[in-house]
Amino acid sequence: MNKKKLTIIIISVVIFLALIFSTVLIFVNKNKEVKVENIDALKIKEEYESLNNKKSNSGKTYPKVTLSENNKFKYKSAKEIVNILKSGTGLIYLGFPKCPWCRNAINVLNYVDVNEIMYLDMTNQRDEYSIKDGALTKTKDGTKEYYEILEILDDILDTYEVSDDAGNKLSANEKRIYVPLVIGVKDGKIVGYHKDTVTLSDNQSSYDLLTKKQQSELKKIYDDIITKVNDDFCDIENKDHGC
Questions:
Q1: What is residue 104's predicted lDDT score, i.e. its pLDDT?
Q2: Counting runs of H as helices and runs of E as strands, what totals does the chain give?
Q3: Which residues pair with 120 in a beta bridge?
Q4: Could you tell me which of 231, 227, 185 has the C-alpha nearest to residue 83?
């Protein structure tokens, strides 16, 4: 074999090995990207599913949650949620793992056709009150961003009330973000929202899984919110100027 042919063979082998190396490198990088993208999804899955078959402080078993590993939930900070409510677009879910209603809600949200669901864990966001000597007393302050969210959502929220042992309700003279709360936002405007889940049957508690019929009912509500977020529409007040 002459030197020229040997050189050609060596060059060909080097090129072949370089192509294999490049292909492997691209594959590894893509897998890394997928893993990074799935960090939120996997962590949220773990947080909710870790309570399956566990009992609450009241002795009731938490509703089972089953989330896919590639679910579309993404953590957002309270500050990010404030900014989204002011000028952003998308679907927001406010809740926390130990809330039985939230567990039923997230099971259904998992199947909603949307690219991303922005999730704020409300566990340590809200303020708290208790009744002492017949009067309502604040026992914990909410975060700065929580009060900003309260102000933004004022029109859709209920009054914060605390019941005493006799069932009498005292008002905290402020609104409350009761969860689960799902909000559709488009360009900083709330186009749809849903509180709680659906009406429960007489023998059903918040710790019971929703029936398939109830899940379908709730999914339709969430689907309607997504439709409003995604819809393009003309502002009728400016219709003379076109869309």
A1: 98
A2: 6, 9
A3: 94
A4: 185
Q: Is the dihedral of CA 106, 109, 110, 111 positive or negative?
A: positive
pLDDT digits (tens, 9 = 90+) for 188-220: 999 999 999 999 999 999 999 999 999 999 999
Give CA–CA dist 233/222, Å, rounded: 20
Distance CA 195, CA 176 (A): 12
Report whether 161 contacts 172 (CB < 8 A): yes
pTM (2 d.p.):
0.81
Question: Residue 239's pLDDT is what?
Answer: 45
- The 3-class SS string of 200-231 reads CCCCCCCCCCCCHHHHHHHHHHHHHHHHHHHC
- State how far the Cα of 87 lies from the Cα of 154, in Å rounded to an integer: 17
CA torsion sign for 149, 219, 195, 106 is: negative
At residue 179's C-alpha, the angle toward residues 38 and 215, to 5°, is 70
List of the chain residues with pLDDT < 50: 28, 32-36, 236-243
The residue whose two tokens read 């089972």 is 64
Supply the pLDDT for residue 33.
47
**Whole-number pLDDT of residue 102:** 98
Tally Cβ neighbours within 10 Å of residue 158.
10
Distance separating alpha carbons of residues 191 and 180, to the nearest angstrom: 17
